[in-house]
Amino acid sequence: MTAFLAKRIAVGLLTLIVASIVVFAVLEIVPGDPAQLMLGMNATDEALAALREQMGLNQPVVARYLGWAGGLLVGDFGRSFTYSSPVIELIAERAVVSLPLALMALILSTAIAIPVGLFAAARRGKAADTLAMGAAQFGVAVPNFWFALILIYVFAVWLRLVPAGGFSGWENGLISGLRALLLPAIALALPQAAILARVTRSALLEVLGEDYIRTARAKGMPRGAVLWRHALRNAMIPVLTILGLQFAFLLAGTIIIENVFYLPGLGRLVFQAITQRDLIVVEGVVMLLVASVVFVNIVVDICYALVDPRLRTR
User: Fold this and answer.
1) Which residues form the ABC transmembrane type-1 domain (predicted)?
2) Tally of structural domains, the chain
3) 215-252, pLDDT tens digit by residue?
4) What are the beta bridge partners of residue 85?
């Protein structure tokens, strides 16, 4: 198990190094002068030169990358020139919205998808299976921002059960914060639940044809027990793969949803930073998202090993 973990961590670190190079390079080749865009077309040459000096734009590309990457290693993400504050503080302020939102969406997605996948697999070829998979296909096809607009109209405008947008902060109470994040979480969760339900059904159908499942049924084990205790566990590897990918997608996919619901999260921070050409903020947030993806993938690999002990020797 130790060798298994060491190998996964080494791959994760290599991924972070490659990702940092790609992120830095992509933002470097974006056309336009960041100093000119930030100060405007009427800025004086002296002001532009001072800002370029402050931003380090007059240094060689390699020196800028090494300085930026070295800062990441010690938790120094640089300083935002738009907000005049350290990037790590901006990320910490916004993460208390985006992270709970992504976790809520992941919990809702899993709570919906696995029972639906089990329900459809147990009734393969029947009307209930067709109906469930038809609904899942609809969920895959429809973008999450469309769900967001429908949810706002129904539950915020028409029924007036939850706020249509904004976030008052966790200091006003846990219930208030969860109410503000409920509709965004549902809008994020529904398309992902549709994907996960289809994967769960397919994995279960493959497992249900195995000999040990037929043996369990022949021994008189109840159908529900066969599905939950035997079939689902052995079908979990593809399901865990999708869950790991979904958390990363949910965390990164909050850009649209946070703007629809006017939430002060990481997604809105990235959107504003791109608009204002605050590249140091964009680089910091993107690398944080990459690191979260790598971390989640390592956790998923550990879950693989727990579900299937044969993987621990690879």
Assistant:
1) 95-298
2) 2
3) 777 777 777 777 777 777 777 777 877 887 777 777 77
4) 80
